[in-house]
Amino acid sequence: MSVVSVGSQLYEPLKKEFNSPNPNLEKCGTYLAKLKISLSELALLLPEGEIPNTEELLIARDILEIGAYWSVQVKDIPSFERYIAQLQTYYSDYSSLLPPSPKMYPLIGLNLLRLLSQNRIAEFHTALENIDPQQLLENVYIKHPVHLEQCLMEGSYNKVWNARAEVPAAEYLFFIDILMGTIRNEIASCSEKAYSSLPLADAETLLFFNNSLHEVMNFVHERGWVVKPAENKIYFTTKDENKIEIPSTSIIQHTLNYARELEQIV
Q: Which of 101, 120, 169, 235 is 20 to 30 Å from the Cα of 130, by its Cα?
């Protein structure tokens, strides 16, 4: 058995289905599962040792790239992470043997965005170190997540939200929405500490819900906040058990005793 014979049975149907206007993602997943077993048997998931021929490597690389895109479309982040890890060998170790893949930088950019959305900043910077510096400056798929990371470091969350309209590929929206969810929860936690209440319209703007009252109300209920329709306000609930009582009387008494002892020493 060779990857070419496997390709004629499963790879070509996978490509045809996945690239169709309305792909059946369940069918694509079935094809991918069978193809990964075949690639594993042919030592092409993580190739090592004797170098396979170029045609086999190209087919295997394309299967893994389709798998990575499929993972985003079915919102399976662990699967996407595995496909990216398997593709690293093709993008680095076999880069001199294979022609460049047009899917490489879009997928590398997607992976950078995944790391940002998971707040894995150290890994994000490690991944950047493995990218050609010229691509960091010029490649739109790499520049986009780099720009987002800079905005996050500045605390410019409005720029992160605005970047949603400037994605270089539709798949990027999946991870940006996850990132916005993380940002919303951070803003919500800060708001709970800073305010006792907020007008509903202000909360809608502050949390980047883009004039969607339904989404605001869902978020409010998830956080356990209280909405008073008559006032059109959100009231932040606090738990008494989270409050820290400062024993002021005891501290004052200890301070006075300490002062008296110092006087006696002097």
A: 169
Q: CA angle, corner 165, sides to 154 and 121, nearest 5?
A: 35
For residue 222, give both structure tokens. Answer: 């998830």
Domain for residue 107, yes or no?
Answer: no
Residue 106 lies in a domain: no
Q: Are strands 197-199 and 226-228 parallel, antiparallel or unpaired?
A: unpaired
**pLDDT tens digits for 216-255?**
889 989 888 999 888 889 998 754 444 445 555 666 666 6
- Helix (H/G/I), strand (E/B), else coil: 199: strand
Q: What is the value of pTM for the model shown?
A: 0.81
Name the token pair of 16. 């045809």
d(CA 255, CA 186): 38
Number of H helices and E strands in the chain, helices first, is 14, 3
Q: Are residues 3 and 79 in the same domain?
A: yes
Between helix 104-117 and helix 77-92 the angle, nearest 10°, is 140
